[in-house]
Structures are given as structure tokens and as C-alpha cells.
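Entry 14. Structure prediction run on the chain below.
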Amino acid sequence: MPELTFTDMEVNICTVCNAMQEDNLYFVQMAGAPLFAVLLAKRTHAPGIGFLVEEGAIAPFPSFPLHQMMLSPSRSHYRSLCWTGMNAVDSHATLGYTDYGVLQAVQVDKYGNFNSTFLGDNYDKPERRFGGPGGANEIASCCWKTIIMTKLQKRKFVERVDFISSPGYLDGSPNAREKAGLPPNTGPYLICTERALFGFDEKTHHMRLDAIAPWTTVDEVLSRMDFVPLIADDLKTMTPPTEEQLTILRAEIDPDGLTLARGEWLQVTI
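Output returned:
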């Protein structure tokens, strides 16, 4: 039987791509997997999809191949409807115009709070410091729904994040986001990994395992987490990347493999 080989990064990108629809507006990070997911959707099932980029480009038509440094190059923002700044596109989300935010995280906890700032228990003397949220705090705070992309590892799925860079459902209590001054009816919607998809219970806001990949089991998924999530009654199976998606990603979007080739390689029989 034929087999497909791909990286965990490619699985994440294709899974989020499959969830994207033309009639929604997406607010994505300025580089990496979130941007690749929306670009893949534009080149497959949703050519008219609308998206904003974190540093201010509105509805760009990137010129391929993309430059290896995706932070604000003219090629990635070619033919933008408008190229403003971070404050301007953040205001679109604040006013309720943006349906989904798509972000990456270093750590995420059971209530969808996520960390992209540092690891350790001391902000001034961290075990490791990262670039910080940039505009991710505004995206997670103000978009109607937030999609978070990360890897399924015990050090990433933790009971409590070392630092809340961007808010999820905070402590999970009723109206916790609203009490903190965030817009009502907003919050994390989907956590996407290479082995599982997670949603959130509407009442408790506790993370819930909704789907697993064909190449894993529930027990393996749980062994890669520092806490036990809820498990959906109708647990679904994730769809692997297609040959068409992988070809577009590797030949057009990231031909140098600067993002796609990093990480774990997986193989599945189709």
C-alpha cells in the first residue's frame, strides 16, 4: 500500500488549513506555520480566503517563492489591499471584525492560556527566554476564536503555564475573560498538534480531546501531557496531509524547507 512521509509541522499546517473557510477572516502571525496554513488554504480549497498579517498587511497576495525572512518583506505582502501597522489590524479585531486568530505557542495549559515568553519560575532569570507574544496577546484577547498550533509534548501541555503571554480562559471560572476586561464570547477554540486535536468544554472551559491521528492512540496522547484532558464521547480521527498539500508546501510555499523540515518525521500508510 502507498505511504506518505511528512513532518509534524506539515501535519499541523495541513490540519489547520483544512479547517479554514472562505467566509471567515483570519488574523495570523507574521511568519511560520500559521501563515503557511492560510497560504495553503488559498492555493487549494479557499482561494478567496481573507486574512490579516500581524504586522499590518490586509488581504495580501504573496509572491512565490517566499523570502526566507518572512518578517515584513515586500514579497510576502505583495498586492495587499492595505499595509498599515500592528495597531491598525489589532483595532479590527477589537471591533469584532476578525473571526479567527491563528498562533503558535511554547506552552499551553488546560484552560488554553499560552506562553511564548520564557520558561522557569523567575522572569528576570529564566531557564530560557523566547521572543515574546508580539501581537499574539491582542489576537488571543480580541478575535472571536483562537486556533493554537503546537507540538504534543509533556513540557508543552502543562497544568499551569510558566507565564501567561496570551489569555485563554484564564482560571476557567465563569466569565473569567469578561471580568478581566476581554470581549464576551471570545477565547480559544482549537489546539492543533501532530497527534491530536483539542477543543474546550463550553461550561468548564477545560481542554477536551476531540480527535487523534491514525498513527497514535489515546494512551500515547495522554502520556504526552502533564494533565488529563476531558475526552469527547465521539472521538474523531484526524485526516492526514494529502499529496497535493505536501507538494504545494514543499515546492511553492517553503521550497528551502526552513520551516517544514524541522521536527519529527512521520509515516502513514494510505
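The radius of gyration is 18 Å.
Filed with the rest of this week's runs.
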